[in-house]
Amino acid sequence: MSRETPKIPNATISRLVTYLRILESLEERGVNRTSSEQLAEEAQVTAFQVRKDLAYFGSYGTRGVGYTVQVLKRELRQILGLNRKWGLCIVGMGRLGQALADYPGFGETFELRAFFDVDPEKVGQRIRGIEVQHLNDLARTVAERHIEVGLVTVPAEAAQTVADQLVEAGVRGILNFAPVVLEVPKEVAVEYVDFLAGLSRLSFFILNPKWREEMMG
Amino acid sequence: MSRETPKIPNATISRLVTYLRILESLEERGVNRTSSEQLAEEAQVTAFQVRKDLAYFGSYGTRGVGYTVQVLKRELRQILGLNRKWGLCIVGMGRLGQALADYPGFGETFELRAFFDVDPEKVGQRIRGIEVQHLNDLARTVAERHIEVGLVTVPAEAAQTVADQLVEAGVRGILNFAPVVLEVPKEVAVEYVDFLAGLSRLSFFILNPKWREEMMG
DNA sequence: TTTTGTGAAGCATTTCACAGCT
DNA sequence: AGCTGTGAAATGCTTCACAAAA
């Protein structure tokens, strides 16, 4: 931070997310110090790339020494806007919704603040201390609880309607677990958590000529 | 296919996956014909980009007319190596694993072929007609049923061990739902399905100076 | 006339080599 | 001596303008 911010390649942002994931993993394993070399190896990029990516935002290491895991982690969270809580809601409390409600990976960054469903059996239930509300209450609750991201885990045919309601209510991002393309204004970020998304990385390998022969029958 | 294959930008591959998603959505809505313009709009890129991306692989449209949804979809699936079934297994039949087992988004490309767990309560149960096996049987079953991709939905502390076993058994890709970084050989593709992955797109917005002021307290 | 397909120009990103701290 | 930080060179990607086809 505190810098003229030239223009940051989008690819850099994706990599910063990866570096952050690696730093959290290192921290968990009790490692305090790292280097551009180590980060590069784990992220499968070059050490030049790591240093350049970080240099867009500032200088967080010590020459001749490397980076302090905790410091760099904090700085990356700051850069990525993950140094504050993001309010989350889950729409659709089927098995996937319930599984996500118990997901241990929200970390210090995301906070579940509401659950929605339309099934009278589910509305009123308490999950992790939060009452499941009817979808009709979405707009009001999203505003009251400062919810910025919605996780959509409803059946495919209901997903677009739910997305419209979330957008209308003012969320900034949608994580879509339903296997359909959502139409939303372009200032709302949609991330598709489907099998195509999951396997796009695998496609890099498939497209690699060496593998291709072997894998395609 | 059938072409000199220059070198394909990685970014192109990611976009092909997006185009495919859009085509599947169009097909579902009964649309048969589309254009680089329409694809561009839905994918949030330029029409030039769409045409260039496709041109790396061949020419699939009709000048003056556009593209046939079904044809282009088939060609993209072919390019991406999704024109064959990929065998999947799920390791960890907790709620997330079970929810994924019922996930309707596998489409024509992915096929569930095995489930694994260590809990004696779960081993032996049948889910979607497939018996849950003990983790000890993983290597054998992966080989016998030609499983190429493993979905890891075990607790964080068990994830690395499971990943090792999957790699040893010969899978090509891992979808990791556990919130930890996995160490695998670089010829195995790992995709992280965690909240950082899901929200990296949101970070693009956060990094956009206009939004930044407004969102960061 | 419309919309694709594509070489070439323009722009962005990555790589590199080394200067700069510790 | 070691590893970061960074301008400049090299590479790669995107945009463009227009030819080609229906």
UniProtKB/TrEMBL annotation, chains A, B:
| Keywords in alphabetical order | Cytoplasm, DNA-binding, NAD, Repressor, Transcription, Transcription regulation
> Could you state a single Gene Ontology molecular function term?
DNA-binding transcription factor activity
One GO CC annotation, please? cytoplasm
Entry superkingdom: Bacteria
Report domain CoA-binding positions: 81-181
Q: Where does NAD(+) bind?
A: 92-97
The record's subcellular location field reads: Cytoplasm
Look up the DNA-binding region in the UniProt entry and give its residue ranges.
18-57
Sorted alphabetically, which InterPro entries does this protein's record hold? Answer: CoA-bd (IPR003781), NAD(P)-bd_dom_sf (IPR036291), Rex_actinobacterial-type (IPR058236), Rex_DNA-bd_C_dom (IPR009718), Tscrpt_rep_Rex (IPR022876), WH-like_DNA-bd_sf (IPR036388), WH_DNA-bd_sf (IPR036390)
Which SUPFAM superfamilies does the entry mention? NAD(P)-binding Rossmann-fold domains (SSF51735), Winged helix' DNA-binding domain (SSF46785)
Q: Do you know which Pfam families this protein is assigned to?
A: CoA_binding, Put_DNA-bind_N
**Which NCBIfam families does the annotation name?**
PRK05472.1-3, PRK05472.2-1, PRK05472.2-2, PRK05472.2-3, PRK05472.2-4, PRK05472.2-5
Recorded hits in HAMAP family, A to Z, give: Rex (MF_01131)
> What is this protein for, i.e. what is its function?
Modulates transcription in response to changes in cellular NADH/NAD(+) redox state.
The family line of this record is: Belongs to the transcriptional regulatory Rex family.
Q: Indicate the quaternary assembly.
A: Homodimer.
**Would you tell me the protein name for this molecule?**
Redox-sensing transcriptional repressor Rex
* Name of the gene this protein is made from: rex
